[in-house]
Write a structure and sequence with these properties.
alpha+beta, four-stranded mixed sheet, 8 helices, about 15% strand, globular
Length: about 190
């Protein structure tokens, strides 16, 4: 895998045109080299193509075992069936102006509270980085109850292009993105 491909945003899908055997071969090479970024792109591409969840989970475990220090923060730590849909929806939003505000997503777990979907998503915005804001939620600082109680990880990949935008754009996008994700059948919190 080229360095430019490994440095690309996940939404760019730099391996989109590679065959499945090529992606699997690149993944094995990434594991041997302890290259978390390249391995993350390989898994991400297979995920976006609808690879079996067991294969993604197994790949995530292997990647964490061999390249934990270099895995980019945008790669989720567990398989989420609807992640490709979130990328597709989030990609439809763009900001008009630059600024200091970030739109972010948090994975929520409802395993014990629901007989339906195990996971949901929280849509938020902040002038803090998404990682800082997630930590604040989990520490109870101006926390949304759903993130404090059910937030398990930041979903950084789908909203990477919605960072450093104007506050007015962020307010609009946060609400519209939450609505679009809800319309797509996801359990959504926040977005106000």
């Amino acid at each position: 895998m080229l360095k430019a491909e490994a440095a690309a945003a996940p939404s760019a899908r730099p391996l989109r045109w590679r065959t499945r055997p090529e992606v699997l071969s690149l993944f094995e090479t990434a594991l041997r080299a302890a290259d978390g970024a390249a391995g993350a792109h390989c898994l991400h591409e297979l995920w976006m193509r609808g690879e079996w969840p067991q294969h993604i989970e197994s790949g995530l475990q292997n990647l964490w075992k061999h390249a934990a220090k270099s895995i980019p923060e945008w790669l989720p730590m567990r398989h989420i069936e609807w992640l490709p849909k979130v990328y597709e929806i989030a990609d439809g939003f763009c900001a008009v102006r630059k600024g200091r505000t970030h739109v972010y997503l948090v994975l929520l777990e409802y395993a014990e509270a629901s007989r339906f979907e195990q996971y949901g998503v929280y849509v938020g915005m902040s002038h803090y980085s998404p990682a800082q804001r997630f930590d604040q939620h989990k520490a109870g600082i101006r926390a949304a109850g759903s993130v404090l109680k059910r937030g398990i990880e930041l979903l950084a990949g789908p909203t990477m292009h919605l960072q450093y935008i104007s506050r007015s754009d962020a307010v609009r996008i946060e609400a519209e993105l939450a609505g679009a994700l809800g319309d797509a059948g996801l359990r959504v919190e926040g977005g106000h």
